Every structure is written in C-alpha cells, then in structure tokens.
From TrEMBL:
The keyword Repeat does not apply. Keywords: ATP-binding, Nucleotide-binding. Residues 20-264 form the ABC transporter domain. SUPFAM superfamilies: P-loop containing nucleoside triphosphate hydrolases. One of its GO terms (molecular function) is ATP hydrolysis activity. The keyword Nucleotide-binding applies. This is Sugar ABC transporter ATP-binding protein. InterPro entries: AAA+_ATPase, ABC_carbohydrate_import_ATPase, ABC_transporter-like_ATP-bd, ABC_transporter-like_CS, P-loop_NTPase.
Length: 266
C-alpha cells in the first residue's frame, strides 16, 4: 500500500458465525460522539487487535462490548444471538472476561485465591453449605492445573501472595483468571503497557496459548510491534469510526499508522 490512493487487496474475513459481533454501535456523550456506527466481528481462535489514536473510541468500543457502557444504537451478538448487557457482570456471566491494566489482581491474596476471586469454592457437604468453609486445597490444585494448561511455568507456587510477583507474572495471573472459567472471549486492555521486554513476552505467549485453545482475544494496544506480533486481524479506529480492518500480512506498521492518523485510507 502507498499513501492515500492505492487500492489494497481486501482482507479475507474469517468464515462462520462470529463468537462476538457488534453491528453499527453508536455511543454519544452529550455532543461528543464516542462511537459512530462501529461494527466488529470476532471469530473463534483469533486475536483481534484494536488500535487508534487517543480519543479514537477504543475504550468506548470495549466498554460497549463488556457491559460497562450501554450503546445508544446498534446490536451486539454472542454466538449469533442478540445480547443486551446492562452492567459488566452481565457480560462476565455470558463468558466475556475483561482484564484491565491496573485493577486486574488483589495483591495481598495468593495466586490461587486471585484465580478464584468472586468464584470461591466451598467444601462439599455441611462444611461448605452451613459453615461456608472454603475448599482451599481444591482451588489450589485447580489453579496449578490451569496455570500449567496455559503454560505459565514461572508460577510454580500458587500459595505466594501476588504482591511478591513481578509485573509480568501478575499480568499472567490476571490473564489466567480471565481464561480460567471457560470464557468465550477475553478482552485485554493495554496488557503490556507497563511491562518490560521479558514480561511482555510472557503475556504475548499467553495470548498465543489462548488462541491455540480457540479462545478469541480482543487486544487493545498502542504497541505496534506487539500488535503485529500476535494479531490475526487489526481493527483501526479513527475519530469514532472504524477506518479499516487489516492484517499483519496485508499491511505494514507504517501503513497502519498512516490509516490511524488519516494520512492514508485503506
Ligand atoms: N465518559 C465520557 N464522557 C464524555 N466523553 C467521553 C467519555 N468517554 C469517552 N468520551 C469521549 O469519547 C471519545 C472516545 O474516547 P475513548 O476513551 O474511547 O478513546 P480511546 O481511543 O480509548 O483513547 P485513548 O487512546 O486516549 O485511551 C473521546 O472524544 C472522549 O473524550
Ligand atoms: Mg482508551
């Protein structure tokens, strides 16, 4: 692609019913148009990156997908069925897990407790139902299994408090938590923004594991190399609209930035 005029070969759209689909979402804040008719399709086992300049509508889009905002107009479909999320818990109950950059984990709790936060298991029988005793051993065993399944080998000890982990390991716990409970979709908001090279790589590997397990991932990031490393498709937001959806094969990072800033059209 060269700037402005050249036609680009169309990006092939994956086949089948999307796991998550947004159709013509509109979200306004008074006179400010946050989203102006944005559509998006997310298919099983794909990593869809969302990029765009500041104020382009990325967070607003994600919030509409995850129940934090109710769109003014447009439709949301999960496995082809219309859904109407009124609050984040509705989206979570439907299998959409969101990992926010800072609120992801509870530092004072250990790894296993973080994985089961809000979904604690009680012991079977009277101990659990009457005395509300937690099934700590069961949760720890399952936490170990879950981490192993996701290939998080740097976290052998699930009884360590999360505050003692590195930033990357904490992020890994947050992503593992999102992936732990048969999630349909995992949404990651700037997961590598505060991380070093090694830690970022751990998170990127984790994203690839999720894809291998057919869990689709929506990844918001300003980091072009990371986006181009893991994304199957890249949704580019510009001024509240979808400017283009490209792939790392069809376009270069320079192309993507040009579309983001309006220097080129896709
Ligand atoms: N709660 C709100 N009230 C008023 N305006 C808002 C609100 N949330 C978003 N906006 C506006 O909607 C537009 C899109 O904002 P949004 O936060 O989605 O951008 P973004 O792409 O996430 O940007 P950034 O990269 O800076 O995070 C902006 O003009 C923003 O000012
Ligand atoms: Mg934002």
């Amino acid at each position: 692609m060269s700037l402005v005029t050249d036609a680009v070969e169309p990006v092939p759209t994956p086949q089948g019913v999307p796991v998550l689909e947004a159709k013509r979402l509109v979200k306004t804040f008074g006179k400010v148009v946050g989203l102006d008719g944005v559509s998006l399709q997310l298919h099983a086992g794909e990593v869809l990156a969302i990029i765009g300049d500041n104020g382009a509508g990325k967070s607003t889009l994600i919030k509409c997908l995850t129940g934090a905002y109710v769109p003014d107009q447009g439709e949301l479909l999960l496995d082809g069925e219309p859904v109407h999320f009124k609050r984040p818990q509705d989206a979570r109950d439907a299998g959409i897990e969101t990992v926010y950059q800072n609120l992801a984990v509870s530092p004072a709790l250990d790894v296993a407790s973080n994985l089961f936060l809000g979904r604690e298991r009680r012991k079977p029988g009277i101990l659990g139902t009457v005395f509300r005793t937690l099934d700590t051993a069961g949760m720890r065993a399952e936490a170990r299994e879950q981490l192993q399944r996701l290939g998080i080998s740097t976290l052998q000890d699930v009884t360590v408090a999360v505050e003692n982990l590195s930033g990357g390991q904490r992020q890994a716990v947050a992503v593992a938590r999102a992936a732990a409970f048969g999630s349909k979709v995992v949404v990651l908001d700037e997961p590598t923004a505060a991380l070093g090279v090694r830690e970022s790589n751990q998170v990127l590997e984790l994203i690839e594991r999720l894809r291998e397990q057919h869990v689709p991932v929506v990844l918001i990031s300003h980091n072009m190399p990371h986006v181009f490393q893991v994304a199957d498709r890249i949704h580019i937001q510009r001024l509240g609209k979808r400017a283009a959806t490209i792939t790392p094969r069809s376009h270069s990072m320079t192309d993507a930035v040009a579309i983001m800033t309006g220097a080129a059209v896709a």
